[in-house]
Design brief:
Elements: H1 5-11, E1 18-21, E2 25-29, E3 39-43, H2 55-75, E4 80-84, E5 100-105, H3 124-131
Antiparallel strand pairs: 1-2, 2-3, 3-5, 4-5
This protein binds adenosine monophosphate and zinc ion.
Residues 1, 4, 6-7, 46, 97 line the site of zinc ion.
Length: 133
Amino acid sequence: MSDCIFCKIAAGEVPGRKVFEDEHTLAFLDIAGDVDGHILVIPKRHVKNILDCDGETLTQVMRTVKRVADHLTKNCGYDGVNLLNASGESAGQSVPHLHIHIVPRKAGDGIDAWPKFEGAKREIEEVFREIVM
Ligand code: AMP
Ligand code: ZN
């Protein structure tokens, strides 16, 4: 998509610190400056988010997520990773090109990568009956 910043990074039209790429996917550093080693993994083709992503593309993306996570933990001194994704504006997605955030973790790093929830508002059984497939 011509005005998509992540498509431009994938195409090399906008600079990005590319950590890994293959035919279908790209992993590059997030510029947020919020946590060391914050990485985004994207499909090279434009997909808005997980809701309009076909299974094959998602498989390619997650294969790269696994590859980068293995690299971080085997070769870079990290112990674990948090994976984060926002799909849809209501979920807080700010860039409308599918991306999985990888936050590399070390024991005792003090990072709190888990969202701060305010507590469920409805009775669990009622919600369960509504969403069970
Ligand atoms: P989200 O809010 O989940 O859609 O995340 C979007 C992420 O994209 C944010 O963490 C931004 O810091 C990151 N971001 C936006 N523009 C760029 C860019 N040009 N290069 C790298 N990361 C970017
Ligand atoms: Zn795009």
